[in-house]
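Write out the 3D structure for:
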Amino acid sequence: MIAELGHFALTLAAALALIQATVPMVGAARRDHAMMAVAAPAAIVQFLVLGLSFAALMHAYVTSDFSVKNVVLNSHSLKPMLYKISGTWGNHEGSLLLWVAVLALFGALVALFGRNLPPTLKARTLGVQALITLGFLAFMLLTSNPFERVFPPPLEGNDLNPLLQDPGLAFHPPMLYVGYVGLSIAFSFACAALIEGKVDAAWARWVRPWTLLAWIFLTAGIALGSWWAYYELGWGGFWYWDPVENASFMPWLAATALLHSAIVVEKRDTLKSWTILLAIIAFGLSLIGTFLVRSGVLTSVHAFAVDPDRGIFILLLLVLAIGGSLALYAWRAPGLKGGGLFRPVSREGALVMNNLLLSTAAATVFVGTLYPLFLEVVTGEKISVGPPYFNITFVPIMAVLVAALGVGAMLPWKRGDLPAVTRKLTAATIFTAGATAVAILFWTGESALAYAGLAFSFWLGAATMVHLWQRARPTKRVSVADGFRRMRDLPRAVWGMTLAHLGVAVLIFGATGASVMTKETIAAGVPGDSFTVGDYRFTLDRVEQVPGPNYRAERGTFRVYDAESGDFIADLASERRRYVASGQETTEAGIATDLGGDLYAVLGQPADDGGWSVRLYRKPLVPWLWIGSTLLVIGGFLSLSDRRLRVGAPTRSGAQEAPGADAPAGAAPEPAE
């Protein structure tokens, strides 16, 4: 009965989406306030109805209702409760239901917090959002019903993919979806602005908080997925340029560019057309990622292998959404003229360079991800594009971006003095040189690429702190003590930007250690054997059988000693798990962490002589990857909490209209950076 209620709620949500997509749009065209007013309540009720549907599916998983086909295929009564809950979205149908629920969530948030949006812009934004939701609801109801029954119901289910039975993967998809799907609201704002033919500083101020909110969760989701791949898959890496990894990374790059270009629209009333295009591209890349994951064209630990006929439906949705929005853009973009002029050496010029580099990086990832698929479709030839391609193409682009980022943030608006800025960065340059020299002495024998990566991280971190100090103490007339007091009172958006840029610097620091400074040994041995990895000695102490709630495991315990002094450092426990229901095997790495890096051990396959294969690593600086990711997320939330960057729109004061409704752009308050 509860499953039928969930299915009925899906149908009701589709009807509400149809109403929300049509009535407010017609009302906006006619300037009929009663019809436009339908948008907000329809969006809120649609979210509540989809929440009810999602709760019904979760109930089926929690109670192991094996009369529901989706539960049979993706659950098992022995699973721990956490994975019964996460199984709700750990499959094609359930994840689609989460997708449309997040779409409806963002529509409801705009309805609740966008009270001061111009009525026509709000109605059209919610109308476009409902059109996207309606398309995915139609896909679910016609091809991917999560509440389909099976008769007679089996006694047990097939279990969830063991790789997904992990705390990291329990929370990774919801975070990723809030970011992935959240970019839809920027897309809806862009389409609504194109329909109205009006993009101004107020529009940029309204769209930025929603884009920032999506960007924060997308950042957190990507970082959580990278962390999971690092410790769960047992290969010792955090990023492999897997096509499905790239499918979430491309929208992140586009969203980062969008956040920066919207600043220029808000502050200088220029780059309007480009910013609108970025909003379309960012969500378009999210849709392309959805197609890759669900069309059956990819085989990946992240992908849902489904009937390719469903992929055709998604491809049709993709063509309609991206093709329709680009056609609208082609029609309206020539009328979006920017008013602000600026010199190439200026804050605007630096942000344009930022956008060009981020867009080029996204295009590079796009080509590397999709070219093998196009080639296979056209010629039937299968090729693999892996890390070497991305290291050669993507990394140099980002190196230029990081080098320029420290300078660009220091430039003033409209026109800048590059020699004066470089003089202000003298302290950052000296610090970078000194810190790099210390790193060369401390990590002797590393490659030039490793030292270059460390130097880039030192440069960006030092330049970011110099910029913060310049904001607090712009002239020598301000004393050092007053500078520290002023620093404390800087707007949250400034602190958010500082933490985000520091997060990038820390990420580079950690990625350098994890990528090009790793030491590894792959060998075979029996308990009692020792293996040397860099400055460490790993001893396989014992291998034993251990039971789990729904698996049996072989656990290998490694003792790690300092290779020179012989001092004991840590015990590591790695497991090979075999799941009861499916018979599938997974690997759990044994990891010991400190700020200097990780000791990493993996128990592999048994050997014919009674021994075991082992993979042992010393991975310097890996924890700084997760610290840097955390700084990015915290910086995003700090910026979002700034009073100048509220989610929604500025409040009206008395009878005064919100800036951007009828007031000139110049009436807008100073934008948050």
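The chain has 20 helices and nine strands.
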